Amino acid sequence: ETGVTQSPTHLIKTRGQQVTLRCSSQSGHNTVSWYQQALGQGPQFIFQYYREEENGRGNFPPRFSGLQFPNYSSELNVNALELDDSALYLCASSLYTREQYFGPGTRLTVT
Amino acid sequence: GENVEQHPSTLSVQEGDSAVIKCTYSDSASNYFPWYKQELGKRPQLIIDIRSNVGEKKDQRIAVTLNKTAKHFSLHITETQPEDSAVYFCAASTSGTYKYIFGTGTRLKVLA
Questions:
Q1: pLDDT, tens digit, 9 for 90 and up, residues A3-34
Q2: B97, A97: Cβ pair inside 8 Å?
Q3: Burial, B97: exposed, middle or buried (Cβ in 10 Å; 0-12, 13-18, 19+)?
Q4: Which of A44, A55, A101 has the CB atom closest to B98's CB atom?
């Protein structure tokens, strides 16, 4: 059984640019959730994908978008990056909406 | 809106003592409560969880209690060890929905 993986590990972007983060879910899992974790805070729910469809969204603007692929891997895309987007981005995989297991995260820095 | 409050924000205990972290949730429909441990620079790891049809759950030195009436749940760690030092997050979720609402975290330091 393989765990949740994410790429890249770290990323530095300039304000206004676009970024794509990737997540491979744990084997046997069909649902991926994305969270933003600012320094010193708890993870904030961005959205969840199930069977390639968005299955719920948190309080994030439309410039945060995502995809899920037939193999259940997922991408998070952020357009028009702002300084406040600097954070650790975590994905978590689960079987339906049961226990979520997190990946190691992607540290995004926007300058 | 949905909210989870977590206290304390920092907690220092002597090795071998017990540690208790408390959370309060606002959504009365919440029925699943996981706890995560996050070491510095690492991913959050699920350490224990409880569902609303159970009042208490224990796994070796870790236990979680739930008071649905008061909308409180707590993490109890007994016989603490230095390797228990980390940030602990509580979360609340509702069956059939999709998102975890996380608390703000508790930084636990176990002093040797």
A1: 999 999 999 999 999 999 999 998 888 899 99
A2: yes
A3: middle
A4: A55
